[in-house]
Every structure is written in C-alpha cells, then in structure tokens.
Amino acid sequence: MRLVVVSAGLSVPSSTRLLGDRLAAAVVGRAPTGAPAEVEVVELRDLAVEIAHHLTTGFPGPALGAALSAVADADGLIVVTPVFSASYSGLFKSFFDVLDRDALAGKPVLVAATGGSARHSLVLEHAMRPLFAYLRAVVVPTAVYAASEDWGAEGLAERIDRAAGELFALVPAGGPDGSGDEGGSGGSGAGRRVVAGAEYGTDTAPYIAPVPAPAPAAVPAPAPVPATRRADAVRVGGFDVVPFADQLAALRPR
Question: Rounded CA gap, 102 and 137, in Å?
Fold first, then answer.
C-alpha cells in the first residue's frame, strides 16, 4: 500500500501537517501483518516556487515533477489544507491545477482541513469535495476538520479513525505478490519525504465481498393469439386491429 499525504501547511510546526500525519498513521495502522505500507508526504510549502513556475511555463521542475508522479502513482491520497478566506489555500489549489487532469481518476482521497474556528468546517463540503469530485477522485464519506479547539478535545480522534477506516477499505493493501507495486515511488527530495516503509499493525482489514454481476433481465414471452381472432386481423402491440372498412361500416346509420 502506497499512501501519499499532500499537506499545504505553511508554518513549522504545522497543525495541517500534524493532522495529515495522524490520518496517515490511522490508515497504516489498519494494514494487515506482512503487508508493507509506505507513506510519503508532499509538503507544498517547499514546492511553492516550482508550482508558480509551472503555472507560467507549463513545465515542472525536478522536485515538483517527482511530487506529481508520487501523487499519480499512489494507491490513496490524504489531502490537507489550512483554510484561507473561507476556502482552501491558493497553494493547495495551484498544486492540483498543475496535476494531470486524469491523475486522480478513480483514486481514493480523504479530504481534511484545519482552521482557527469551527465556523469554517463547511469548507470540506462546499470547496474540497467538489474539487476532487471534478477531478474524478473517489472521496471518502467522512471528511475531517480540526479547529484550534479540537486538538486534545473529544471527537477528533473518532473522526480520524472513522475516515481512516473508510480510506483503507478503498486502498489495496498490497500488490499481487503481497509486496506492493514493483519499485514503488521511493526516494525523497524537496517537498517529498518517505516517513514510513515498514510493516504495521494487526489484521483489521474489513473483508469486501465481490459484488455478483446482475442477472440478465427476462424477456417476456409474446401474448398468445386468441383462437377466435379473425383470419384477416392485423395484430399490433398485442391487440387485434379492426380493418378500416369494418370500422367505417360500424359508423353508417342502420
């Protein structure tokens, strides 16, 4: 399982990065014994200059190119942004603006945000979820928002655990040989850090039963033709059509 965390936090230390780390740990902790889990963190703060150059030139620098490839190759994403002006930060949006438009198609994504007030928590629903729906990602049902007062308070840990479980259920735990994709994204550089590459936890992965293919719809048999029908009758849509001459004769006064 290869998990990538995209953090748009600007400060050091960053509550945005902290939320991303806690979400990643909760997901990796669900990996079964023997399945390798790799977590890579993309710090957009370190890529700000290259993102701006890419927007104006159309070409990524080496560090940004590696980060874009890591996101495209990930089995699942955790994306976290601070709230600026009631929405995601411009740096966060710019990174996904330069990402290939098909890179997130069908990819599981957990969205999260941090802010100074709980009043901005709807940013998850009115800004982040539509953005990743537009990019054709599969956004997990539970999004996580952490205001300043949430750290150390009740509720945040439960939301993190629930969202992590939903993301893990969508992320493949390993490759066909149980060792993940060959090669992996690997490595590190400006803006990218592999922070976990070991085996974790106990087997708590939920079993997802395969969904059987629906049976083909039965075609109704044609209605039997009454034995008393006329020899010259015309049958349309299951009904006998009375010849026009007979209809005209029925209208004549007797």
Answer: 9
The residue type of 203 is D
Dihedral (C-alpha) 219, 220, 226, 229: value to the nearest 10 degrees?
A: -60
pTM of the predicted model as reported, rounded to 2 decimal places: 0.69
The answer to whether 98 and 55 are in contact (CB under 8 A) is yes
Residue whose C-alpha is closest to residue 145's, from 131, 153, 156: 156
The answer to whether 37 and 196 are in contact (CB under 8 A) is: yes
Question: Quick one: three-class SS letters along 97-116?
Answer: HHCCCCCCCCCEEEEEEEEC
Structure confidence at residue 177 as a pLDDT band (50, 70, 90): very low
Query: What does the alpha-carbon distance between residue 64 and residue 85 come to, in Å, rounded to a whole number?
Result: 26
- Return the exposure string of 245-254: e unless at least 16 CB atoms fall within 10 Å of the residue's CB, then b: eeeeeeeeee
The token pair that represents 134 in the structure block? 């537009």
Nearest to 89 by CA among 55, 42, 122, 123: 123
CA atoms 37, 43, 49, 51: torsion sign: positive
Where residue 244 falls (left for φ over 0; alpha for ψ -120 to 50; beta otherwise) is alpha
State the pLDDT at residue 217.
67
